[in-house]
Amino acid sequence: METQIKAEPGKIKKGVQIQKITPFLWFDNQAEEAANFYLTVFNNSKIKTATRYGEEGAKASGMPENSVMTMAFQVEGQDFVAINGGPMFQINPTISFFVNCETVQEIERLWGKLSEKGTVMMELDNYPFAEKYGWIQDKFGVSWQLIIPEREQKITPCFMFTGDQHKKAEEAINFYTSIFSDSKIIQLERYGKEVGPEGAVVHCKFTLNGQEFVAMDSHENMGMNFNPAISMVVNCETQDEIDYYWEKLADGGFEGAQQCGWLQDKFGVSWQIVPNVLGELLCHPDKGGNVMQAMLKMKKLDIKMLQDVVNR
């Protein structure tokens, strides 16, 4: 069975608000190392929980039983999850993370740490659009865009539409903001005919459920596209919520990519639609393995069916 090792299994403190949309990072065998590395880079950071592969999860994934499965952690007060999922997917820069910095000293400190054994995408320098900016892919493959000035939300996920998805950023932004409540476009800048391609999105800030995101089109074909190596977890209170987000986000998406609460939308972005109680059910001391078995047979997750496994 899967067991938590850093927190009381499955318990959610009353009054603690769960981040609605949580970035989920897929690694081969580096989830624990990466999470601990990010804690040394960013402030206001901590490991929240960890789970280990039980018998059923190990069989399904090919990972060793009792090895670390997931690490839930916070950096700059924002939630992330990392998983040791094997070599199936590789993280690429189509989803990156803006880090909004307050001072030159801060941005240079972060650049120094994140660039260790990393790959420079754009040099840290002064640019027309920012007092200071740099784009780095760290040693684990995760991309960070460091920028001054600071914004209220310290770390902001960024979707880059390239290749087959080029010029679809605005369509995707409108799609996502129509699905999530408390959502709006904050700022949208398009390319003019002088730079082109005209009408493509240079940069757009928008919110989903009050959380800030960024999207852009890249007319440079980078030979890559969205894949499940970085997905967005939508944490749901009820089955009605699961049904709603599954139906909306899966509309026009890749049906063959739907399993265990995962889906790929029509733009190729991966989402996980999961109930908040899933961790508690998977960590049940006697029935956790049975819950995992039941979940592996599902596409959209059914809370009652998973709870019935524990209660029967």
How does this structure look, described?
With 312 residues, the protein is α+β, with helices and mostly antiparallel strands. The protein has 2 domains: 21-90 and 232-311, 2,3-Dihydroxybiphenyl 1,2-Dioxygenase, domain 1, CATH 3.10.180; 95-217, Signal recognition particle alu RNA binding heterodimer, srp9/1 (2-Layer Sandwich), CATH 3.30.720.110. Helix content is 24%, strand content 35%. The chain contains 8 helices and 16 strands. The protein has helices at residues 31-41, 55-61, 104-114, 169-179, 239-250, 278-282, 288-296, 303-311, and strands at 21-27, 46-52, 68-75, 78-84, 95-100, 119-127, 130-137, 143-148, 155-161, 184-190, 201-208, 211-217, 230-236, 254-259, 262-264, 270-275. The strands form 2 sheets. Strands 2-3-4-1-13-16-15-14 form an 8-stranded mixed beta sheet, covered by helices on one side. Strands 6-7-8-5-9-12-11-10 form an 8-stranded mixed beta sheet, covered by helices on one side. A hairpin with a 5-residue loop joins strand 7 (130-137) and strand 8 (143-148). Helix 2 (55-61) packs parallel to helix 7. The chain is globular and about 65 Å long. 39% of the residues are buried. Mean pLDDT is 91; it is low at 1-16.
